[in-house]
């Protein structure tokens, strides 16, 4: 490969440590094609982006003599920082002097007359050893043919100072100094070598040599270099053509070299150790070869292309890894990339590829990566003692939390709902309502709070929240008032003389009195007067006063003054023509008389007359009565103005049956939503228990940022309301949009390390018809969660029902226990039917990795919601028997709640109904349990092992119970049979593979006992039983 950049010069070079520049000094002992005897120092810019091969010259200064060595030192903080920002260049000349240049003065366009800043005269022969200290850049070491080593302090280049010269004693006599090098790890240690084959390590603090060694055969030593990473490793090369050598020494033991690099056939004259990767060393020799060595293996990595003449100076470019400069006697200085040089397939394996090691500059010294589950992993070099290179890296794993607010709120929310008590849920809703800044949120949480009220009070609370109050005294209740109202309109015989003799003195919701009295108290209009629709016409005095007045009125009061009308009605009644009599009363606008006569004429005539009266009346409250009597609450929803939606909802709350409640509330909500009243629609959807529509409306406000809240905070608000609503309604099937929302939330929780909580939310969605994304997320969370060893307390287990972990620990109330239950009386019978609490559902607690969240809603007593019948409140009247409730009617007895049975174990579980083909599963796993129990110590086991044995028994007992009841899928059962067959054959590896398959495909169904089964298999695999 040809050089990538270069310049046509026969020069020794030095590369700037912190800038893209190269200094080139005319090489002593070499001539160019012009045979010029002049010398100069030139500065070239290393522009690797330019397409020109020739490097641009940016500065030049003549020199009195040619150069043996050049060195470019870093800038020091104490040396007029701006004036010497590029450091200093020192040139060792053939006459024994050292010139000091300021490279910044050479580069500046105004001239270089001030570039030469110092001239050092001390040596008596050519200066071949010259180098700046890499740790203390103001120190310059020089060595010459006179055998002296001088240390110069160039903190002030204009007035340099020097320390006493270092001279060898008689035992370590050095001849002509050929090269010297500062230790890159210890700043006061210097090494020098000479042509007589002696290498000396100097301690400047002691001003004397500390180690000296010689080549065994006294070969000329031409160059040496310290290892940039190991403070005690030193390479020394010889330039003798008969026996060239490159040897690696450890100065702690100089009896023999550590390694020798064999490849050159003639003397080595220059060498450079890679400052970035100490495993690379480059050498050039008189055989015209420039070789890059692997100092670890001692093999050749690559070789620069050979020229027509030798390379006499080589350097690694410190700014770009892998770039080398080589100066040759061909009159060129070239730059090469070692990656493009010819490589050697040393140590080839059977496949023909050499075991090459990537350079260190390709390795990231530090790095970080984000992992699933809120993990952040990073690596960095392992710390090592001073002078010893770092060996390998250290990897750290950190739980990264970026949403502290989300984690805190999620944990707080879990703690608030974990006990599942309705009183605590009411407190939660009340707290959220008070903390909410927006009026819509406060109203929403208030409605959610009502859903968790105790039995018999939920409807009253909702009516109160809507602005309606109901008397608490049963005798003053609306139910009795309305029952009396309808009794007056009933089908049974009415005795007029006894109308006012009752003891009931309460006022009713509607301005009416009992039956005939009510209508007879209406002033009779004139024959040509139209029917009045004014509310004032229905206004009557107090009920008691009205009855007293009725009793004191003389006979004949209120009778018609039209004899013809009276005669016609009487004639019709005499012949039993009730229909004709009713028609005459209606035509005379005597609706009360018509209703009374119709009552006598039978149910059909009564109903037609009643309906006609309702049609003729324009009073709003009679529209309500008509809808109740005709079982047509839907018409109220469709016809009442939407601005009175609260009154409409209150009517539905009071009179709607359970089976029609949801439809009516949904209809009202839909009309409100179409009209743009989003809040009212949301509240009605909440009453209907319609989670999908409610969340759809809530999701519309889910923006990236809203009112100072981030998307994560808004999503947390939405999920809290959704979960509370789900807990109240017991809904277990969700729409695709809600599933997507839960997926997003679970992903965020998982990214914060809340894997167990994320799994709980995913379990809310069930396992049917999940999207591929949800399945993948669920499996990732399941496989990323390390099962924790369950700690079983010695205290007695509570007698409350325990719920299985194969379902979500957010225990949803059964749909039949939703917060609204309508009236249960068929045919609008006024007799209330008592309803007792349902017995709690029990199951067994599963092993869910991580934090355990118990059942959210306590199984007993069940949630009742709004009960308009059992609470002594308004009951919708009907046209059947209108007798008051019989006092002898017995209430339904409440079933006795028995404590939950202890979970089954291997010893106590019933397996009599296990299918025949699954019987081997029971036998094999029972044997596995016995063998692992014995391996754990059996009866002699310590407390920790005993708890593990008990846990194994309990988990297998739950599995056996599922097999006995058939509550296990065919796929899971078939895999269990295969697993047990593998155990019978002693093939534990296959058994563990099948267990992994169950984990990935049947996790929701089998997670309760899968971890225990895996633990038992591994225990049995690692123990040899006698």
Automatic annotation (TrEMBL):
Q: Does the record's keyword annotation contain rRNA-binding?
A: no
Q: Which GO terms describe its molecular function?
A: structural molecule activity
Q: Where is this region: Disordered?
A: 878-911
Intervals holding WD repeats: 120-154, 261-303
Compositional bias segments (type: Low complexity): 890-899
Name the predominant localization.
endoplasmic reticulum
Q: Name one GO cellular component term.
A: COPII vesicle coat
Q: Which residues form the Sec16 Sec23-binding domain?
A: 569-764
Question: What are the GO BP annotations of this UniProt entry?
Answer: COPII-coated vesicle cargo loading; endoplasmic reticulum organization; protein transport
Cross-referenced InterPro entries:
Sec16_Sec23-bd, SEC31-like, WD40_repeat_CS, WD40_rpt
* Keywords assigned: Endoplasmic reticulum, ER-Golgi transport, Golgi apparatus, Protein transport, Repeat, Transport, WD repeat
The subcellular location is: Endoplasmic reticulum; Golgi apparatus
Q: Which family does it belong to?
A: Belongs to the WD repeat SEC31 family.
PANTHER family per the UniProt record, alphabetical? SEC31-RELATED PROTEIN, SECRETORY 31, ISOFORM D
Q: What does this protein do?
A: Required for protein transport from the endoplasmic reticulum to the Golgi apparatus.
**Know the name of this protein?**
Sec16 Sec23-binding domain-containing protein
What is the species listed in this Swiss-Prot or TrEMBL entry?
Answer: Carya illinoinensis
């Amino acid at each position: 490969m040809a050089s990538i950049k270069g310049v046509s010069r026969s020069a020794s070079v030095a590369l700037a440590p912190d800038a893209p520049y190269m200094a080139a000094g005319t090489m002593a002992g070499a001539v160019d094609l012009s045979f010029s005897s002049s010398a100069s120092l030139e500065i070239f810019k290393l522009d690797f982006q330019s397409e020109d091969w020739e490097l641009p010259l940016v500065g030049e200064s003549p020199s009195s003599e040619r150069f043996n060595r050049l060195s470019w030192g870093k800038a020091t903080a104490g040396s007029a920082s701006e004036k010497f920002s590029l450091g200093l260049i020192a040139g060792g000349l053939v006459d024994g002097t050292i010139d000091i240049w300021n490279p910044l003065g050479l580069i500046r366009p105004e001239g270089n007359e001030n570039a030469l800043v110092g001239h050092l005269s001390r040596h008596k022969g050519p200066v071949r050893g010259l180098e700046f200290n890499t740790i203390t850049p103001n120190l310059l070491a020089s060595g010459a043919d006179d055998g002296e080593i001088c240390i110069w302090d160039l903190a002030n280049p204009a007035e340099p100072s020097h320390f006493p010269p270092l001279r060898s004693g008689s035992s370590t006599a050095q001849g002509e100094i050929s090269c010297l090098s500062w230790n890159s790890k210890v700043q006061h240690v210097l090494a020098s070598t000479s042509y007589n084959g002696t290498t000396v390590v100097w301690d400047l603090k002691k001003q004397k040599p500390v180690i000296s060694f010689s080549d065994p055969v006294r070969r000329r030593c031409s160059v040496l270099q310290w290892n940039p990473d190991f403070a005690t490793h030193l390479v020394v090369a010889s330039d003798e053509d008969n026996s060239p050598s490159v040897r690696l020494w450890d100065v702690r033991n100089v009896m023999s070299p550590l390694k020798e690099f064999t490849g050159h056939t003639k003397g080595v004259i220059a060498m450079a150790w890679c400052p970035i990767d100490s495993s690379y060393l480059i050498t050039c020799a008189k055989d015209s070869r420039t070789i890059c060595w692997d100092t670890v293996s001692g093999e050749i990595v690559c070789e620069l292309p050979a020229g027509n003449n030798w390379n006499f100076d080589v350097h690694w470019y410190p700014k770009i890894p892998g770039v080398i400069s080589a100066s040759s006697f061909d009159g060129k200085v070239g730059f090469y990339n070692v990656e493009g040089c010819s490589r050697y397939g040393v140590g080839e394996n059977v496949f023909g590829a050499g075991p090459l090691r990537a350079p260190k500059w390709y390795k990231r010294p530090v790095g970080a990566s984000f992992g699933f589950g809120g993990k952040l992993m990073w690596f960095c070099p392992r710390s090592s003692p001073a002078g010893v290179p770092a060996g390998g890296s250290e990897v750290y794993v950190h739980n990264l939390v970026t949403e502290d607010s989300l984690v805190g709120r999620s944990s707080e929310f879990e703690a608030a709902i974990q006990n599942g008590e309705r009183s605590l849920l009411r407190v939660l809703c009340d707290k959220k309502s008070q903390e909410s800044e927006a009026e819509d949120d406060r109203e929403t949480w208030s409605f959610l709070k009502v859903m968790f009220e105790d039995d018999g009070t939920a409807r009253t609370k909702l009516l109160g929240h809507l602005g309606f109050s109901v008397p608490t005294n049963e005798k003053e209740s609306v139910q009795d008032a309305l029952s009396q109202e309808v009794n007056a309109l009933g089908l049974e015989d009415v005795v007029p003389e006894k109308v006012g003799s009752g003891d009931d003195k309460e006022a009713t919701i509607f301005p009416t009195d009992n039956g005939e009295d009510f209508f007879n108290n209406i002033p009779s209009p004139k024959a040509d007067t139209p029917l009045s629709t004014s509310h004032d016409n229905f206004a009557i005095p107090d009920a008691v006063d009205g009855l007293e007045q009725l009793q004191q009125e003389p006979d004949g009061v209120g009778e018609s003054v039209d004899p013809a009308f009276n005669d016609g009605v009487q004639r019709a009644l005499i012949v039993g023509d009730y229909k004709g009599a009713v028609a005459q009363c209606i035509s005379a606008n005597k609706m009360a008389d018509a209703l009374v006569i119709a009552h006598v004429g039978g149910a059909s005539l009564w109903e037609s007359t009643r309906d006609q009266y309702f049609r003729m009346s324009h009073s709003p409250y009679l529209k309500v009565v008509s809808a109740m009597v005709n079982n047509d609450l839907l018409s109220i929803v469709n016809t009442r103005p939407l601005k009175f939606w609260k009154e409409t909802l209150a009517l539905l709350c009071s009179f709607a049956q359970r089976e029609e409640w949801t439809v009516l509330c949904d209809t009202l909500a839909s009309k409100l939503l179409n009209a743009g009243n989003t809040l009212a629609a949301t509240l009605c959807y909440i009453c209907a228990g319609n989670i999908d529509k409610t969340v759809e409306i809530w999701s519309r406000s889910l923006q990236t940022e809203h009112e100072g809240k981030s998307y994560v905070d808004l999503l947390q608000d939405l999920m809290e309301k959704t979960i509370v609503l789900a807990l109240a309604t017991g809904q277990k099937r969700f729409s695709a949009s809600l599933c997507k929302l839960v997926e997003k939330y679970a992903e965020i929780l998982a990214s914060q390390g809340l894997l167990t909580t994320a799994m709980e939310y995913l379990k809310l969605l069930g396992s049917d018809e999940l999207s591929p994304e949800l399945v993948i997320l669920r499996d990732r969370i399941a496989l990323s969660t390390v099962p924790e060893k369950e700690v079983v307390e010695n205290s007695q287990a509570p007698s409350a029902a325990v719920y299985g972990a194969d379902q979500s620990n957010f225990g949803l109330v059964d749909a039949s226990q939703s917060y609204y239950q309508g009236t249960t009386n068929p045919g609008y019978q006024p007799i209330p039917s008592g309803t007792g609490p349902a017995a709690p559902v029990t199951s067994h607690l599963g092993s869910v990795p991580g934090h355990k969240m118990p059942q959210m809603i306590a199984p007993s007593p069940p949630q009742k919601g709004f009960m308009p019948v059992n609470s002594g409140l308004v009951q919708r009247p009907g046209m059947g028997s209108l007798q008051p409730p019989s006092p002898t009617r017995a209430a339904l007895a409440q079933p006795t709640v028995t404590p939950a049975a202890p979970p089954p174990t291997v010893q106590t579980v019933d397996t009599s109904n296990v299918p025949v083909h699954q019987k081997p599963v029971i036998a094999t796993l029972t044997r596995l349990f016995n063998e692992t129990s014995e391996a754990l110590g059996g009866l002699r086991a310590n407390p920790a092992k005993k708890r593990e044995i008990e846990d194994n028994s309990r988990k297998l007992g739950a599995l056996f119970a599922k097999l006995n009841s058939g509550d296990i899928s065919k796929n899971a059962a078939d895999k269990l049979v295969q697993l047990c067959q593998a155990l019978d054959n002693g093939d534990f590896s296959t058994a563990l593979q099948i267990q992994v398959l169950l984990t990935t495909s049947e996790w929701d169904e089998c997670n309760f006992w899968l971890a225990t089964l895996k633990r038992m298999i591994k225990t049995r695999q690692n123990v040899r039983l006698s």
